[in-house]
Amino acid sequence: DTEVTQTPKHLVMGMTNKKSLKCEQHMGHRAMYWYKQKAKKPPELMFVYSYEKLSINESVPSRFSPECPNSSLLNLHLHALQPEDSALYLCASSLQTAANEKLFFGSGTQLSVL
Amino acid sequence: GENVEQHPSTLSVQEGDSAVIKCTYSDSASNYFPWYKQELGKGPQLIIDIRSNVGEKKDQRIAVTLNKTAKHFSLHITETQPEDSAVYFCAAPNFGNEKLTFGTGTRLTIIP
Question: Which residue does chain B place closest to A97, by CA atoms?
Fold first, then answer.
């Protein structure tokens, strides 16, 4: 199994809603990532988890709250988002957190904030 | 930190012809250079990568070449097919902050 699975594929939410994005991998990878991608731009790193501990937070607003319940799962909790937060949210994993490790991406969650 | 520049931003190629996308990087310590393909509505998928101990790597119609002296690497796609139409991103490691730095992307369109 070389897949990173993300749910849901699409999400529309209001600015007062609370929602969660989910990500799962069964490749035994110990590093998991959240990226944000705006249209026609490269992915931007948000968070990195290494061995289930948050190792990098790229100064992301607190309305985005990551969680790593175990080595296979990664969640991103969303609360009080703004319309400018609308984007494709990508989960990724790698064997370790080294910058020269192969990165495997999921298909993403297309988020629209109204 | 690492700076990655990618050219061209858009590329249209007749089906069956070759396509070449080039990236330059700034950190001479970089030693790993992946290429990702992103189709519409999907996440980026690793299609080929190269480490700095080799100058070229091939996988069927796809090849990557690396020139460490000039600090650039290129993606070559031969005998292009409609399914090659996608956005392609190069990347290079930033060892200062253990992140992968992506290029700005190339939208490749294969004209039937």
Answer: B98
